[in-house]
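dumping this here before i forget
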Amino acid sequence: MGNARNAASLAMTAVMAASAGDAFAGGFQIGVQSGSATGNAVAGGAAVAEDASVIWSNPAGMMHLKQSRQLTSALHVFKPSFKFQNTGSTGAFAAGGTGEGGDGGDWAYVPNAFFTMPINDRLRFGVAINAPFGLSTQYEQGWRGQLIALKSKIQTVNLNPAIAYRVNDMLSVGAGVSAQKIKAQLSSFSGVAALGNVDLDADDIGFGFNVGAIVQATPVTRFGASYRSKIKYSLDGRANFTGPAGAAFSGDVTADLTVPEHASLSVFHEMGRWELMADVTWTGWDRLQQLTIVRTTTSAGGAAGTTFTSLPFLWDDTWRFGVGANYRVSDRMKVRMGVALDETPTNDATRSPRLPDQDRTWVAVGLQYRMPGSGMWSSARAGVLEIGYAHEFIKDATVNNALGASNLIGRFEAKANILSLQYSHPF
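structure:
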């Protein structure tokens, strides 16, 4: 197992640097993994088979790709906004400090890539490299809530080989395994000038699996179901105090974290020039109840084995509902649209500035363009360009975080924009 972890770590390190993202679905899940799906608000993902990105949404979909050997690459550009408004903070949080923290959201760029190839008429292979989870919020040093949060960042990169098998003309099945690297960074002000900020930095690699099935019920209608497992981590890292007296209090730490499983049911239907799709997705966020960070070395702050800090979550499972449609303008051009309702796993009791998440409504549009082929690149082997845009309307997120006798009380005004660019090329 140790050799496998080391090999996966080497394969992912170069990708990790570019895979930071903000949470654009419930919790800290990155909601878009495909440029073609962005324009449909990710509706119908387990039944749609547009390009090689289907490896992620439902590996069985590889059997429904018109070009069995293809490479798909995408870049997702995220711009969230999280602005705090104080509504009655008390104690240490009553003083305004340097202000309300500025905008906690910032630009993020998340690439991914997918490849599929045939093994024989009934069997196909594919591999996905993507970032399923991500979080990045950062507030100004000295702001009112700096004792709760300054910087919060989660990066992941997932390596997911998969196979698909055609059982008969109606049924296709698929399965894959995942090696997923996670890196977490959390910082806040310690409350003591001599100790400065406390910066937590930890990482690990975990393993999981995914399965899926597609039923071609009629020539124009298919149903899809997919499941992706939870992944357990034992993060190891260090807590560093940045002040002049901080070295004596710094030390190694560990924490157990589980990212949730999710399951989707989808339908896809062709009707003349129109393609219609819908889905429902469940995510098991109730696995995240509390994050307890434990010292693994003795320092002036405490002995090895004692709790360094504990972050309450008390999150709930979530549901996501999406519908979408495509209109084929011509053989080369397709227009996409979609809407989705995305529940938050957070609650008013434990929500914090680290992730001021709330229920989201997605509104999305997109455009597909098939490049004209010439010479050796016939139209059947020409590349396909995708551009997708989604805006997320996010409900105001209230916070009421207690620290001793003090409370940070307020609300966040939030919104998010997503732009996806993708190119697929058959071989």
